[in-house]
């Protein structure tokens, strides 16, 4: 994903950054797009006050899903409605291809040295990792071992799933395809197996509705990320996270500066503070349950890994290959799953 | 000073309407005639793709049927309610109006998620039926068309009741008395006098409920799930997930045209039956 040369360049720039005088304080505001829900709440409660305190910059948050941000920025044609994006890998690649980002000047991210290799590149800064696996209700079903288990009893009749609309849905279906002989670019086996068990499956839902469906007992097994599991657990829902035997999936959430941003300097300050130790640590606490990426922040105990380094063994996907195929997959999923 | 003509008074509204509704609509039509998602090659490719796929017709038919089923359910439940309202004391009428309007004061998202709690596997309905011993296994209500129609009926009910009640409360009570004095039974009075006279309200209610339920994206996807595919879900997928705006424009225009067709048919029927009363 990141070439060695790019990493070296980044590391050199970071080293150089240490000798630069600190940038003068500029006041004003920054408009940042943010995922609705937990992200918005967390950034409002933690990032906004931190940015105000350190840099006297007001943070204006615009709640938008990743795909909505890209759609809005595309529609705005050079005058984006916000200065900074927050994106998953798929939309990130679309945005790079559509030229929606300004290149990152790594010197301006003072916390970059605290991030593991590969998190900062010319287009953005990784500020959060997501880990996706299987969640189940321990009071209703035994713990599944891997993706294959989802297709047999007792799990299949309690399974809730989503399609290719979201990043976590797409990568989970790819992993399912892999255990049945498919690959990152061939999801056919997953659809074939799904079709066989379709009448038994408890729910095929809209991604945003899945936590509610689980909470209401409509389904007792689903694929999801650790953050959703921790949040539901915090609400008293019986839910546990399982790392599938083929490995948990991980992907980065990255912040980017919009091309044509009204306030680029403040956007840098915003990104830098999100990558910093204090904000990262506060974000890992309940009810927010983020996975930190700053090396100085301890990894929360409920996560399926002890250190961030362990995540290098997790499954990752190449979205440059996935993106061009996704429209076809969505169409196929519609047709195969339709009642 | 010359007197302003009526059309001149309507000019500000007409200009606003043209710029914020008509212009985007024309752009939508324009975008649909591009072959690629970068909107660079003009052509009929997206229309050909959509209209050449049998799956599209299934989705159109399902969407229209969902609207018709919801309309029927709101009439069956709403009409008697309107009759009760008509005979109620002024005080009770105030209470009824409050109850009818109350759902409109709640966000549709909240109402939709509340229906998950009601219809879910461990929801209110299933728990009650199981405790009463009527069923042994929970019924599947969520993610079925039945569940969706039930919830849409509640969600869209105010749109049926408000026009219906406003028309019915203007009916001359003497007409009903005259009908019974002339020997008509209560049912005959209902079908020969009240229903025909309330037809404008009923038709207006049907139009609103139909247009609103066929386009109710949140309720359709959250309660119906993604195995029940309606046109709004396709539009959302194509515009916001896949970024194929020309195809999304084609689906949007299809939704617009199909809803308008049914709505015109309904209002034509309404006008014909409205004429019956005087004829």
First-last Cα distance of chain A: 39 Å
Fraction in helix of chain A: 25-40%
Which consecutive residue ranges of chain B, at least 5 long each, have pLDDT under 50?
none
CATH class of chain B: Mainly Alpha
Structure, explained:
The complex is a heterodimer of chains A (339) and B (279). Chain A is an alpha/beta fold and 339 residues long. Chain A is built from eleven helices and ten strands. In chain A, strands 3, 4, 5, 6, 7, 8, 9 and 10 form an eight-stranded mixed sheet that branches. In chain A, strands 1-2 form a two-stranded parallel ribbon. In chain A, helix 2 (38-55) packs across helix 9 (264-275), helix 4 (89-97) crosses helix 11 (319-337) and helix 5 crosses helix 6 (188-197). Chain A starts with a helix and ends with a helix. Residues 11-26 of chain A have low confidence and may be disordered. Chain B is an all-alpha fold. Chain B has a single domain (51-278), classed as MetI-like fold. Chain B is built from 13 helices and no strands. Chain B has helices spanning 6-9, 11-32, 45-51, 54-87, 90-105, 108-119, 124-131, 145-168, 173-181, 186-214, 217-224, 231-241, 245-278.
């Amino acid at each position: 994903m990141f070439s060695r040369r790019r990493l070296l360049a980044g590391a050199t720039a970071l080293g150089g950054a240490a000798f630069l005088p600190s940038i003068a304080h500029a006041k004003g505001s920054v408009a940042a797009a943010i995922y609705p829900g937990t992200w918005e709440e967390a950034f409002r409660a933690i990032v906004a006050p931190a940015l105000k305190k350190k840099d006297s910059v007001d943070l204006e948050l615009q709640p938008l899903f990743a795909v909505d941000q890209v759609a809005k920025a595309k529609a705005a044609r050079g005058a984006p409605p916000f200065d900074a994006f927050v994106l998953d890998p798929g939309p990130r690649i679309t945005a790079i291809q559509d030229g929606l980002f300004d290149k990152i000047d790594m010197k301006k991210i003072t916390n970059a040295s605290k991030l593991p290799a590969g998190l900062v590149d010319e287009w953005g800064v990784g500020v959060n990792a997501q880990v996706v696996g299987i969640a189940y209700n321990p009071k209703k079903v035994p713990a599944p071992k891997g993706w294959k288990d989802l297709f047999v009893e007792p799990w299949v009749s309690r399974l809730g799933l989503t399609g290719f609309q979201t990043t976590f849905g797409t990568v989970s279906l790819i992993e399912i395809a892999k255990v049945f002989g498919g690959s990152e670019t061939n999801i056919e086996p997953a659809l074939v197996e799904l079709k066989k068990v379709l009448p038994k499956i408890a729910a095929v839902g809209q991604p945003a509705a899945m936590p509610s469906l689980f909470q209401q007992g409509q389904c007792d097994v689903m694929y999801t990320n650790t953050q959703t599991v921790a949040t539901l657990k915090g609400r008293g829902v019986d839910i546990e996270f399982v790392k599938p035997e083929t490995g948990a999936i991980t992907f980065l959430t990255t912040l980017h500066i919009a091309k044509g941003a009204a306030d680029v300097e403040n956007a840098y300050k915003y990104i830098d503070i999100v990558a910093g130790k204090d904000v990262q640590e506060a974000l890992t606490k309940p009810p927010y349950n983020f996975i930190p990426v700053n090396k100085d922040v301890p990894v929360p105990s409920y996560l399926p890994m002890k250190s961030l380094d362990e995540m290098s063994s997790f499954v990752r996907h190449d979205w440059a290959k996935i993106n061009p195929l996704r429209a076809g997959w969505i169409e196929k999923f519609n047709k195969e799953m339709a009642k | 000073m010359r007197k302003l003509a009526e059309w001149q008074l309507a000019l500000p509204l007409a200009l606003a309407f043209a710029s914020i509704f008509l212009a985007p609509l024309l752009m939508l039509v324009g975008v649909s005639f591009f072959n690629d998602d970068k909107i660079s090659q003009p052509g009929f490719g997206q229309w050909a793709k959509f209209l050449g796929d049998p799956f599209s017709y299934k989705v159109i038919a399902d969407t229209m049927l969902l609207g018709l089923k919801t309309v029927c359910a709101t009439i069956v439940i709403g009409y008697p309610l309107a009759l009760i309202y008509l005979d109620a004391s002024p005080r009770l009428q105030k209470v009824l109006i409050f109850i009818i309007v109350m759902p409109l004061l709640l966000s549709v998202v909240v109402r939709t998620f509340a229906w998950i709690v009601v219809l879910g596997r461990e929801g209110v309905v299933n728990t009650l039926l199981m405790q009463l011993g009527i069923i042994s296994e929970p019924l599947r209500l969520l993610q079925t068309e039945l569940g969706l129609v039930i919830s849409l009926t509640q969600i869209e009910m105010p749109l049926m009741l408000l026009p219906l009640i406003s028309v019915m409360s203007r009916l001359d009570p003497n007409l009903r008395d005259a009908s019974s004095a002339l020997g008509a039974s209560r049912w005959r009075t209902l079908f020969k006098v009240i229903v025909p006279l309330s037809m404008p309200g009923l038709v207006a209610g049907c139009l609103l409920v139909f247009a609103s339920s066929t386009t109710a994206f949140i309720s359709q996807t959250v309660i119906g799930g993604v195995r029940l595919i309606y046109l709004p879900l396709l539009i959302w997928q194509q515009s916001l997930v896949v970024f194929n705006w020309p195809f999304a424009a084609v689906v949007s225009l299809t939704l617009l045209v199909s809803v308008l067709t049914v709505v015109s048919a309904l209002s034509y029927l309404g006008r014909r039956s409205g004429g019956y009363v005087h004829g």
